[in-house]
Amino acid sequence: MKEILEKILLLATDEVKAAKSLKELEDLRVKYLGKKGEVTTVLKNMKDLSNEERPIIGKMANDVREAIENLLDSVKEDKKKIEMEIQLQTEGIDVTMPSKKSLRGHKHPLNVALDEIKEIFLGMGFKIAEGPEIDTVYHNFDALNAPIDHPSRSLSDTFYINEDLILRTQTSPIQVRTMKSQKPPIRIIAPGRCFRNDEIDATHSPMFHQIEGLVVDKDITMADLKGTLDMFAKRLFGSQTRTKFRPHYFPFTEPSGEVDVSCFKCGGEGCRFCKGSGWIEILGCGMVHPNVLRECGIDPEVYTGFAFGMGLDRITMLKYEIDDIRILFENDIRLIKQF
Amino acid sequence: MRVPIEWLKSYVGIEKIDEKTLMDKLVLTGSNNEGSYKICEGVENVVVGKILNITQHPNADKLVVVTVDVGTEEIQIVTGATNINIGDYIPVALNGATIARGVKIKKGKLRGEVSNGMLCSLEELGFEGSSIPKEFDDGILILDQPYPVGEDILKILKLDNSVIEFEITPNRPDCLSMLGMAREVSASFDIPVNLPEVYTESAASEVKSFASVRIDDSDLCPRYAAKIIKNIKIESSPQWMQLRLMQSGMRPINNIVDITNYVMLEYGQPIHAFDLHSVSGGEIIIRRAVEGEVITTLDDKDRVLSQDMLVIADKDKPIAIAGVMGGANTEISVETKAVLLEVATFDKTSIRKTSKDLGLRSEASSRYEKGVSVELPAMVVDRVCHLIELLDAGEVVPGLIDVYPNKAPRLEIPFRVERINQMIGCELTIDEMIAIFKKLEIGVVDTDGYKAIPPYYRLDLLKEIDLVEEIARLYGYDQIKMTLPKTSTWGARTNAQLIEEKAKTELLASGVDEILTYSFVSRKDLDRIHLPEDSLLRKQVELINPLGEEFSVMRASLVPNILEVLSRNYNRKNLKVKVFEMGSVFLPKELPVMQLPIEKKMLTIGIYGEHEDFFTLKGIVENLLTGIGIDGYYFEKETHAPSYHTGRCANIIWGDHILGTMGEIHPLVQEEYSLGTRTYVADLDFNLIMQLSRESKLFKSIPRYPAIERDIAVLVKDETTSLQIEQLVKSSAGELLESVVMFDMYKGRQIPEGYKSAAYALVFRSEERTLEDEAVNKIFSKILKALEVELDAQLR
């Protein structure tokens, strides 16, 4: 028995050392130490031994088993390291190959820009008001102090459904509706589709988008108007942006103004986007006309307010350098997928 | 409003202010511009020349050879001009000169004769053909007096100044004049205005023996001033006047017409001149037209008038449409011996309406309809008379007819210093405000509170708020501080807006792109999606004045818009497209439309592409609905939706509501939109969906015990739906069934006709213990039994 065990140990040692893979090692473990393995068989056959021999052989067999186990473990550890090394070396990839994209959808560029603008105003305490695309002549013109014979009311400027109903030409009717339905303090922006009877070309669309804003409260001043719009411009176009307020005229505000921002393409040095002037006009604004406040049931002696409006399409086109408004409504996914 | 700087200089001392400073400052005080330009931009090396000799070209009938003194030398030039004479002073483009539109002049030979330059016409100096007087239309500009030869023509004719194109806002009709702009310059730079020289009466009035004026309708004509000029000598006006008119875009005609136009441009007050001898009895009557009355206007067109139009008439006939255009019957001509000058004020609304109804706009009407001060006529008459005397165009008859029945009272506008400061957000004192008002010629009195007295020409200053604007713009918008409103509002999206955003996020996550399409569409769109004639959606909101048929009605469905976009993308070879639009459809409450129609928000999705089918779209819809917190909906087959494939369409049901319809587009509709591939559309009522959306997620604990999975395959009748099987499995299994999901459906070989094989993966799990096979087996046979009994299913 003793000789057998010694032989087994010698043989096993040789074989384990010669093993080429983890698989072979595992086979050797089964061959020697498995249920029907050679060492196990020796241990099983111990019952045939004398009482004196049994403990000696028993100890010896256990030693042999332990020796083989230890050997297997250490060789296995080495082999594992080597195999992993081989794996790491053979599994190299070309990291410059194309990625596997998970396809997500994209928002329309107008709404990408709108979202940005909404976030700015939400952060400044504005809510977002909405209103119908078809509205009354009253909400769109009369309540806004628009002279009764103002050209913008004509059939050549405004789409009519009947004498009293039109497609809104601005989102100001939302302001009127808001002022009529809630008491100051009011702070809203009103984004939405607008319509004007313009033939379609690269810069005109009979449907376009506006974002207007309205703040009404006690002691609202032109300084507040300037501060709000200046902050807006800095947030939208970058903190370096400067604003220029110029007097202008609108029937629904007085004093009224237009706002230029320093060109966000060239930083104000002059380029094709600002036509060399360094400034880009983006906003109309003013103090809400007392007639408008009064018409909406707000006492202009108690409350004052400011309003402003801008064209979303224009801002989107400037921002992304889109040179033809028609492309925005073609909805070719090769445009949309870019945003 | 075109303002030649050279002309502006006659009224304000701006010699020391450069053009850019002038324009920039005016922008900040409210006079925006659309740029400036030089009429003679780029013209170089064109000098004054004197014609010394003219001889016929030896080799060409239509050419002459002229000798011109250009100061430094006498040069020979060949020209085709026919309006030149020896002794004329003319502009000469020397060798190497540049004329209008960048044309270079080089010496050369014309039919064998040396030509060392070119004699220039006004057009060659840069003037528009439409503003050049007839006398120079086809020829060389003949200077009207001797100038030093060799001098730069632009300097001599003062053409080296720019013309500024001002953008005049509708509230400032007074700025549609040189004086108006001069006043703005004066206020902006704090320099005085020099008013033009005027005529003063020096003899007793004789005017009554020549003419009389009667206003019958003073509501439309508050004031009418008339003046008689006799011994008229019609000729060309002097070059300085012609050049100013031309730079302002007006074609010089003759001295009388030019003076009236010149003064109109100066003051903004239209002036008309009648041939006095054609006015019967010299009687001027201002009255409403007789319905159907006809007048031939100066443009030789017959105009049929209505009774709401104002005319100027004599005792026999209308002689002008008041404030719009004169009549041909009293037009001044070379024969005219005496004229009656009309300087009147007319109601602006009436003029606008008349001009619009007749489709006739003129310089006069466009000014009258914006508003002209009733105080202007007397001073304008005096200015015209001054120029008539200056130009020696006629003899001014002493005396003025000035019918002004109701003199406008002086306007006083009460204002409060604190209110003005409060609106602007500044702290000006009354003295500072008075100083600003003074620049604007606004007087201030302090009787029972401050009152502002606006100058006569400022028709826009009526209320305190108008004064706020004046203070703000002259104080300077750029001087106003920047503050933020101290308002206690908080910013937030409404629930509806949040749900909308969430819905979009879900769709974007499913790979669907957002599109935006027009709200107005063609009526034919509903034909294209095969909607029957009696469909409710056919009742559409129609525009009175659409851009064309394709934009004539408000959309009642987003489906045609989505298909149109899919079609366009397909046509452009975009192979895989998934798009959605969230937008309004318009449903009238009655026809014809009387009240605001219902605007309903719809969410419509359209897809096509290689691996897309009904079920990929169904997945998108499920993700969307689940994502915004809607459950308990199911899909029910719909076989009557006309736009869809009858066998591949479903309604999405929630309780008693149909949330929407989805399916494969009918092959004919697909063909209609030239879509060469199967296309799938889901059309959802977003208003409804929004109401059902719930934000009520609760955590369900993660299972602690293992699950047991079993597959089952049954043979069922073809019409048995997967939903039926699922529901039966669920109801017969009890609470230990965690999920049941179909993983295969097979029809064909080995399956009898009219049957299908459906296979499901069932997962069982207990929340309290590890399930044993035994328990699951029991449930499993119960399920099988139920399927056999209820659905006649056979285990496969």
Give short descriptive properties of this protein.
heterodimer, A: 339 residues, alpha+beta, BirA Bifunctional Protein, domain 2, 2 domains, 7-stranded mixed beta sheet, two-stranded antiparallel sheet, 12 helices, 9 strands, 19% strand, rod-shaped, B: 796 residues, Phenylalanyl-tRNA Synthetase, Chain B, domain 1, OB fold (Dihydrolipoamide Acetyltransferase, E2P), Phenylalanyl-tRNA Synthetase, Chain B, domain 3, 6 domains, 5-stranded antiparallel beta sheet, 21 helices
Helix-strand layout with pairing:
The complex is a heterodimer of chains A (339) and B (796).
Chain A: H1 2-18, H2 22-33, H3 38-44, H4 53-90, H5 109-123, E1 127-128, E2 134-136, H6 137-140, E3 165-167, H7 172-181, E4 186-195, E5 207-217, H8 222-237, E6 243-250, E7 253-262, E8 279-288, H9 290-295, E9 304-311, H10 312-320, H11 326-330, H12 333-336
Parallel strand pairs in A: 1-4
Antiparallel strand pairs in A: 2-3, 4-5, 5-9, 6-7, 7-8, 8-9
Helix pairs in contact in A: 1-2, 1-4, 2-4, 3-4, 5-10
Chain B: E1 2-4, H1 5-8, H2 19-28, E2 32-37, E3 44-56, E4 64-69, E5 74-79, E6 89-98, E7 108-110, E8 113-115, E9 117-119, H3 122-125, H4 153-156, E10 163-167, H5 178-189, E11 212-215, E12 223-230, H6 239-247, H7 255-267, E13 272-275, E14 283-288, E15 294-296, E16 302-304, E17 310-313, E18 318-321, E19 325-326, E20 339-345, H8 348-358, H9 363-368, H10 376-391, E21 395-396, E22 401-403, E23 413-414, H11 417-424, H12 430-439, E24 443-446, E25 450-453, H13 464-475, H14 495-509, E26 513-514, E27 520-521, H15 525-528, E28 553-554, H16 559-571, E29 577-587, E30 598-608, H17 614-627, E31 634-637, E32 644-654, E33 657-665, H18 667-672, E34 680-685, H19 686-692, E35 708-717, H20 722-733, E36 737-746, E37 755-764, H21 773-791, E38 794-795
Helix pairs in contact in B: 6-7, 7-10, 11-13, 14-17, 20-21
